[in-house]
Automatic annotation (TrEMBL):
KW DNA-binding (keyword) present: yes
Protein name: MerR family transcriptional regulator
Keywords of this entry: DNA-binding
Region (Disordered): 90-112
GO molecular function, one term: DNA-binding transcription factor activity
Record-linked InterPro entries: DNA-bd_dom_put_sf, MerR-type_HTH_dom, MerR_fam
Pfam families: MerR_1 (PF13411)
Residue ranges of domain HTH merR-type in the record: 12-82
Length: 141
């Protein structure tokens, strides 16, 4: 296995540059694009693949999972998907949901869960308002 070179400070890289940096052949990169949905380099006007730094970092991670950690393609795909979900959930915790929480780390909350919690809160507030209204009406009789 070829040693990994430092990633130059550029916005875009051609496939040949990526191969040189990562030590992975072009046909392997194209195959990995079909197997890993996270790896989807853009194409320029000429139809050539243009990779960004995050693409190269992902390629290096895939290479490590497959060649060093001996994952299968399916296993590496699952690992990357799980890491992506964890990062997404960790980065989207809302301060409103965790407000007033006890000590210790707060669990991550996805946007969908946050939306559902807001709807439940709104419904409970409406229900409480109706109960308070019926208490006022009952006590005035």
């Amino acid at each position: 296995m070829q040693p990994v070179k430092a990633i130059p400070d550029k916005l875009y890289f051609k496939i040949g540059e990526v191969c040189e940096i990562t030590g992975v052949q072009p046909h392997v990169l194209r195959y990995w694009e079909t197997e890993f949905p996270q790896l989807a380099p853009e194409k320029n006007r000429a139809g050539q693949r243009v990779y960004k730094r995050r693409d190269i970092e992902l390629i290096l991670k895939i290479k490590k999972l497959l060649y060093e950690d001996k994952f299968t393609i399916a296993g590496a795909r699952k690992r990357l998907a799980a890491e992506s979900r964890f990062k997404l959930l960790s980065s989207e915790a809302s301060p409103d949901v965790t407000e007033g929480a006890s000590e210790g780390p707060t669990p991550p909350v996805s946007p969908r869960v946050y939306q559902v919690l807001r709807e439940v809160k709104r419904g409970l507030e409406e229900l409480l308002a109706m109960l308070n209204q019926s208490d006022i009406i009952a006590s005035s009789k």
